[in-house]
Amino acid sequence: MVILFVKSTYTSEALEINKQLFGEHTLVMTLQNGAGNDRKIAKYVKQENIIIGTTKHNSVNLGSGRIKHKAIGATTIGSKHDAIKNLEIAKNVLEETGFEVVVSEDIQWILWNKLFVNLSVNTLTAITRTKIGYMAENKAAWNFAKRLIYEAVEVAEADGTYFDRREALESVRKVCIDAAEGYSSMYQDVLKGNRTEIDAINGAIVEQAKLYGVPVPYNSLIVDLMHAIEGSYEYNKEVQ
């Protein structure tokens, strides 16, 4: 089994460089942020060999070869295809190494919930340069997060996955509280002057919204704002 856990911006490159690892029976599991990674994996392995998931583990990169494990929780996996046997194999592999694993029968619902967290918490903590807990503590930040989530719920429902809006908000808020001392991956990218995963997160919402004619002005604003921040890296170097 191959676990794909690079930034979404490097998915295609990572798959191509490591394509020699993929055989007829190779399972590929993605626990990445963003949407569309499974479609890229499908170019290399059969659909039933693709395991999709999300994890509540959070860590901070402290430098070369050093990380700080900030939060622990369940890893949820599933498949968009009938792959019960392959899911059990993946579950056993992870459990043997000490992970808590849940197999979901509705992975699409789980992925949307993860996207709600990414498109609100990741982006806003990157912009405000704060810990994850700030989102639950600051009223203005949480109000903006709610607008982003409400738009995404509209897109999810247009796509066929339905949510109780209050439950969707509470799920995101719980993440902010449980991982209060952690830092989002997008925050860490901005701090280091790296390209972010904005196009695979809020950008994916914007693109999908176009298919259904759903207005998403707040998510569109966030995409532009994050690209403006990315553009400032080189600009600030030039003016210094």
Structure notes:
There is one protein chain. By secondary structure, the protein is of the alpha/beta class. The protein folds into two domains: 2-103, NAD(P)-binding Rossmann-like Domain (Rossmann fold), CATH 3.40.50.720; 107-233, N-(1-d-carboxylethyl)-l-norvaline Dehydrogenase, domain 2 (Orthogonal Bundle), CATH 1.10.1040. The protein is 53% helix and 13% strand. The protein has ten helices and seven strands. It has helices spanning 11-17, 37-41, 84-96, 107-128, 134-137, 139-158, 165-178, 185-192, 202-212, 217-239; strands spanning 2-4, 28-30, 50-55, 58-63, 66-71, 75-78, 101-103. Strands 1-2-3-6-7 form a five-stranded mixed beta sheet, sandwiched between helices. A two-stranded antiparallel sheet has the order 4-5. Helix 9 packs antiparallel against helix 10. The longest helix has 23 residues, at 217-239. The termini are far apart.
